[in-house]
Amino acid sequence: MVKLNCWEFTGCERQPGGKKTGELGTCPAATMTKAHGINNGVNAGRACWVISGSLCGGAIQGSYVEKLGGCLKCSFFNQVHQEEGSRFINSREIMKILRQVAAPV
Ligand code: SF4
User: Which residue, judged by its Cα, is nearest atom 5 of ligand 1?
Assistant: First the structure.
């Protein structure tokens, strides 16, 4: 089973090299190297719901708390949850990992 990243699932074209990066820039979820590997994703491609300022729907999203209501209803979030099953890394665990991982110098 191929595990898609959010930009592959949504076709948002806001990942590095994407056709829409000229509009709002590159989405921070696609470049968050600290999140690489979480839920088997590339950067935060399978943890995008915790990334503040992501560009879903073509608008700069708010903080994790502000986005959460929408993300919990998102078909991609639910797909990742289903695919990862008991190994799903939830928001609290992701935040903990991101706090622990030092940003690349
Ligand atoms: S968080 Fe949204 S806008 Fe950002 S790369 Fe993922 S699908 Fe695209």
Answer: 7
Q: Where are the domains of the chain?
A: 6-99
SS3 76: helix
Q: How far is the CA of 90 from the centre of ligand 1 (A)?
A: 18
Pair 30, 14: CB distance under 8 Å = yes
Instruction: Tell me the CA distances in angstroms from 60 to 16, 22, 29, 90, one per residue in order.
Output: 16, 14, 12, 23
Task: Kindly report, residue by residue over 66-95, the tens digit of the pLDDT.
Answer: 999 999 999 999 999 999 999 999 999 999
User: Model pTM?
Assistant: 0.90
Interior/surface letters 90-102, b for 16+ CB within 10 angstroms, e for the rest: eeeebeebbeeee
In the predicted model, what is the mean pLDDT of residues 12-17? 97
